Amino acid sequence: MEYKKSVATLKNLHSLRQQQLIPRTRQEVFSFFETHSNLAKLTPPSLCLKVLSADSEKLKLNARYRYKIRLLGVPLSWTTLITRCEPPYFFEDVQLNGPYAYWKHVHQFEETNDGTLMTDEVHYQLPLGWLGNTFGKKFAETNLRKVFDYRRENLKKIFK
Question: Which domain holds residue 73?
Answer without folding.
Answer: 17-158
